[in-house]
Automatic annotation (TrEMBL):
GO terms for cellular component: mitochondrion. It holds the Pfam family SpoIIE. It is an enzyme of class 3 (hydrolase). This is Protein phosphatase. Its EC number is 3.1.3.16. Signal peptide: none annotated. It comes from Schistosoma haematobium. The keyword Magnesium applies. One of its GO terms (molecular function) is protein serine/threonine phosphatase activity. Coiled coil: none annotated. The keyword Metal-binding applies. Belongs to the PP2C family. The gene is PPTC7_1. Keywords: Hydrolase, Magnesium, Manganese, Metal-binding, Protein phosphatase.
Length: 380
């Protein structure tokens, strides 16, 4: 009997070893860190007198964005300043720039938790409200983080700025667009008084949060409403297919794809007979219109890849190498390409300044709001 049991054990022992080795392989593969190749493109609609000769980097009109890399994550963000503030003498882009600048600062400070994006938004919003200089305005926003070790993407969006995760020609995750009514999205706001009912003042904890597991080859698109109001998902997928088909996608390929997305959105915005996503939504509200929505456009395009093994075992050196590689892609003095499109400057990459323009909005402007506003604010 004992010899029979020994034979049975010997039969199952190789199976156990094979299973054990498979599990170890899965664990090993799971520990491979992910990276993100990224490119930025945008269009400045030049509809505001607040434009400066030298624009801050990663700013397109009232849109602003940021990109940061930490040891544990890649973080991408966009914000769209609500244009309705312009009629009250306020630069709509100033608030969006402040929010993105604070987001980047918090991420780089080490206080950032990749899967707690609502906390990041709350910290940035509080910093803007408590800034020494009054920054009036409101903005929609979307922030996405790739957690490098867990192979997950986390997203948080407020309003109609959003993101897509694409795999093999299909959208596997999309952000949720939030709105109070047609053409009135959720938005972070800094009105003359926080108790004013004339403004929409949505809170960071109202941001729609999503997450999805990703793998090498997945494509992440983060953009403002200038992209999603004018291009359907099928049009975006068709364009992204060009980089998915490449065996070895390069930074130049990503830049070209991001630029084409912006060009298509720009063209669709001025196509009078095109039934854009914005027009389709308007028709659901009983407004029979066609065409797109001219405005600022910002697109951040990211391709998920495996991190290449570092030649050194020094973890700090590896992290610094990753950071330097990322910043090289967005070095302001490298690979700049600007050209004229319909008498408006189209920025196919980034601008070359890190200073924020000053705004004419002041405390006196804030005081005059109380008497000037007589209706509920509705963003346009």
């Amino acid at each position: 009997m004992s010899s029979l049991m020994s034979q049975i054990r010997s039969l199952f022992r190789p199976v156990s070893k094979v299973r054990g080795s498979n599990n170890n392989s899965e664990v090993f593969l799971r520990r491979v860190r992910l990276c993100l190749l990224t490119a930025v493109a945008g269009y400045d609609n030049k509809h505001t007198k607040y434009s400066t000769r030298i624009s801050p980097k990663w700013v397109y009109g009232d849109d602003a964005c940021f990109l940061s890399v930490t040891d544990s994550s890649y973080v991408l963000g966009v914000a769209d300043g609500v244009g309705g503030w312009r009629s009250y003498g306020v630069d709509p882009g100033r608030f969006s720039r402040a929010v993105m600048k604070n987001c980047e600062r918090v991420v780089n400070s080490g206080r950032f938790i990749p899967d707690k994006l609502e906390v990041l938004i709350a910290q940035c919003y509080e910093d803007v409200l408590n800034s020494k200089e009054l920054i009036l305005g409101s903005a929609t926003l979307c922030i996405v983080s790739l957690q490098r070790n867990e192979h997950r993407v986390y997203g948080a969006s407020l309003g109609d700025s959003g993101y897509l995760v694409i795999r093999e020609g299909h959208v596997i995750q999309r952000s949720v667009h939030q709105k109070h009514s047609f053409n009135t999205p959720f938005q972070l706001s800094c009105p003359p008084t926080l108790r004013s009912r004339r403004f929409h003042c949505d809170l960071p904890n109202q941001a729609a949060q999503t997450s999805v597991e990703v793998k090498p080859g997945d494509v992440i698109i983060v953009g403002t409403d200038g992209l999603f109001d004018n291009l359907t998902e099928s049009m975006i997928l068709q364009e992204v297919k060009t980089i998915e088909l490449l065996a070895n996608c390069t930074i130049d390929s990503l830049k070209q794809c991001a630029t084409r997305l912006v060009e298509q959105a720009r063209s669709a915005a001025f196509a009078p007979d095109f039934v854009s996503p914005f027009a389709s939504e308007a028709r659901r509200y009983g407004i029979n219109i066609a065409g797109g929505v001219p405005g600022d456009i910002t697109v951040i395009l990211g391709l998920v890849i495996e991190e290449k093994p570092s030649p050194t075992s020094n973890h700090v050196k590896e992290t610094r190498s990753s950071l330097n590689h990322h910043h090289l892609l967005f070095q302001p003095n490298r690979s700049l390409s600007c050209f004229e499109l319909n008498c408006n400057k189209f920025h196919s990459f980034i601008s070359s300044s890190s200073t924020l323009p000053t705004s004419s909005a002041s405390t006196n402007t804030a005081k005059s709001f109380s008497s000037k506003l007589s209706r509920t604010y509705s963003c346009t």
